[in-house]
Amino acid sequence: MLFLILLHIFVKEIKLMNQIGCKIIHLTSVDSTSNYVANLQKEGVLAHGTAIIADEQTQGRGQRGTVWNTTPGLNLTMSFYVEYTDLSIENQTSIHHWVAISVVEFLRKLGVETCIKWPNDILAGSGKMAGILIENTLAGKFIKSSIIGIGLNVNQTDFGDVNGTSIKLETGNNFPVAEIAQKLLLELDQQYSRLTYKAFKALKTDYLKNLWRMNQEVRFIRNNQLERGTILGVNDGGLLEMQTQHGVEYFDLKEVKFMLD
């Protein structure tokens, strides 16, 4: 009887693994990998865990309509599709925690120390190395699915006027983009079980441990005015919590712009 129980647990663990990145579609050029995933979703031909990787994005998107620019062939531009069975809207910030932590841990294994700049940037030093875009589909009080986009600077070394950096700049080494994609998907898959088992508090704790300038004073611009505040964390709704001269305040996307120096 014990053997059957252990076998059942073992089979269950196998089913939970190898979901994210179970199918990879490679494109030479596309307007946006997230748009491509969305179109497949509408057609009803998209399996959970499918990833779209493109050498070039002509209309890559960032958070709230911003543009993600990248040099073709040098960086990773990827989107993947995730379905959930019973993930409440109340826990939707855990999706971002899972993805951001996965990127940070993956880069750490390459020898690159990074941090998470709220809401969706991954920084190495003060330079932006990666960006995350998550678009959720809701069904009542639950999250039905997500299209998750990740842009990661791999071998690019010239960012013009943009304060960017890359894995190559931080390590001095070139990396095959396909290999980076496969290893990042593996990290995402391994960390995904934390969502499956509803380890929301642990995910948030790890997220806050890696949050840029956590418990430190920062300079930011609000309504064209330069202010100072201390980052206290992120609440369950994904709003940034800061101590300012007005007391404890909560900020949504695009309400503040941080000075990185």
Helical content (DSSP H or I, runs of 4+): 25-40%
* Quaternary structure of the protein: single chain
Helix- and strand-based class? alpha+beta
CATH structural fold name of the largest domain: BirA Bifunctional Protein, domain 2
Radius of gyration: 19 Å
Mean pLDDT: 89
Task: Explain what this protein looks like in three dimensions.
Helix 3 crosses helix 5 and helix 3 packs across helix 6. The protein has helices at 2-16, 33-43, 93-109, 167-171, 177-196, 200-209; strands at 23-30, 50-57, 76-88, 115-117, 121-124, 127-139, 142-152, 217-222, 225-234, 240-244, 247-251, 257-259. The termini are far apart. Helices cover 30% and strands 34% of the residues.
Characterize this entry briefly.
The chain contains 6 helices and 12 strands. It is of the alpha+beta class and 261 residues long. It folds into 2 domains: 2-207, BirA Bifunctional Protein, domain 2 (2-Layer Sandwich); 217-259, SH3 type barrels (Roll).
